[in-house]
Specification:
Largest sheet: 3 strands, antiparallel
Radius of gyration: 15 Å
Helix content: 40-55%
Order of helices and strands: EHEEHH
Length: 84
């Protein structure tokens, strides 16, 4: 089965305050997602495929989730993994 090759060409500006913006920028760089960030400007992310979109969503979700939400998510993942 051949994977479907989706192609997107979207530049999205993301407004996040302070050091969180730089944390997001560095994490996206680690994931190989093209982005730009400069002082007093929004973070700009180039989303070129569905994987980039999902990864950006996951990183932002993780940054904004409370500790309790992350613990619940981790517990649910462990249950699914060991019950299947």
């Amino acid at each position: 089965m051949n994977p479907i090759n989706y192609s997107l060409a979207v530049n999205q500006e993301i407004s996040i305050d302070g050091s969180d913006r730089w944390d997001l920028y560095y994490r996206l760089q680690e994931l190989g997602i093209p982005c730009q960030c400069s002082s007093h400007r929004p973070l700009t992310v180039q989303i070129s495929n569905p994987n980039h979109l999902l990864q950006v969503w996951c990183v932002i979700r993780r940054m904004n989730a409370s500790r309790d939400e992350m613990i619940k998510l981790l517990k649910n993942n462990w249950q699914v993994r060991f019950h299947n």
